Amino acid sequence: MNRIAVSLLGVGICSLTASGQDRDQRIADLERHLAEARASVAALQKVIESVSSEVDALRQPDAKATAVSGGPSVSGPSEKTSGTRAEAAHDFATRIIGPDNGSDERDSMLSAKPEIFIQTRYSVAPLDGSGADFQPNMRLSRIETRWAGRINEHLGAGLEIQFQESIEGSPDKLVNDAFLEYYLTDHATVRAGQFVVPFGFTVQQSSWLREAPERPIFSGYFFPGERDRGVMLFGDFGFLSPTAFKDLQYFVGAFNGNRFFNDNNRQVNYMGRIRKIFAKDRLAIGASVLLGKQLLPPGVSGNDNQRLVGLDFQYATGRFGLRGEAVVGNRPSTPATIEPVFFPAFQAGDHSWAAELFTTYRVGEANNVYARYNQFNGDPVTGLNIRAFDFGYFRPIGQRSRLSFDYQFKNHPSFEDDAVNGRFQVTWGILVK
User: Fold this and answer.
1) C-alpha count within 13 angstroms, C-beta hemisphere, residue 429
2) Residue 178: which domain range?
């Protein structure tokens, strides 16, 4: 019995020892798993903080936009209020300087859903002598549908149709843009087809963003429809290390060089533009040149050059914005017609020059008042020097609507494309995308 008792006691002691060893091992395993879990949680927390910071940064204007607008990323005691003010300042500076003027379509994918731009206008008080070129009362001044974007890593395309031309009896002007583009590098794009010509600022500025009812007089005379057909290489010199090449844009192209997209003089015009954006100073300066030939009236011989030189600048500081542009060159011979029609005051070798000075002040978050002086010397229809002064009110309504009131003083009517020969215009536009 004693032997049996001793044996049972030995077995119990061994079992307790083994049980204690299993418990210690399990505790060690659990502690190891707990340490691993805590490490994983810490890593996950870092990821959460990083993603949150990135989301917050994306919600604020980016570094380039902030530099252009001159506003800090976060300011003031109220995040919501400061964000609204920063966004308003950024939108204002972007509209004045137009850093995206002439950019390609690689930043967005081409989709079946289009952008739709509708602009309606009320016009009264025609200028004496404007005749049929003044369109009074209510009208749809623009109805445009646009598809544009990147197709894949290297290809993009754009198509824009303006339906108001068809409604007004000019279906031949239905297509605005129709182009393809190839992305050579991050800093170089080739575009071919029909698109906006890269001359100056106001020719390229979108009707959606423009404050005044229409572009200055020279745009319609020198660049009817703002478009031509050709091929263009454009981009920026950001791949070069010197800081002087930062935000330096270039555009070089060959175009039909005619008055209405057809190669009616069997010549090619060459165009070049360079533009430097000083983001920190909220300033941009550009220079443009066009070299080519134009048609002469039957029986007329002489200088058939079509040469233009232009300079422009844009500047924003705080609530104040200023733009200026000047163009000089050979007087245009024909307007925008399929069959050549020659301007009455055209003479071979004559020159015309034009200038625009625009200033605006942002009152509050969205209200803007502006004034514009617009002159064209050597009008090809009348031969007169035309001067126009506009002052008005411009207000973005949310992100997708614009309303403006404009009153104009003009010494003579002009007959350029998209002529505005009324004294008072109310314009309301909306962009759906």
Assistant:
1) 26
2) 91-432
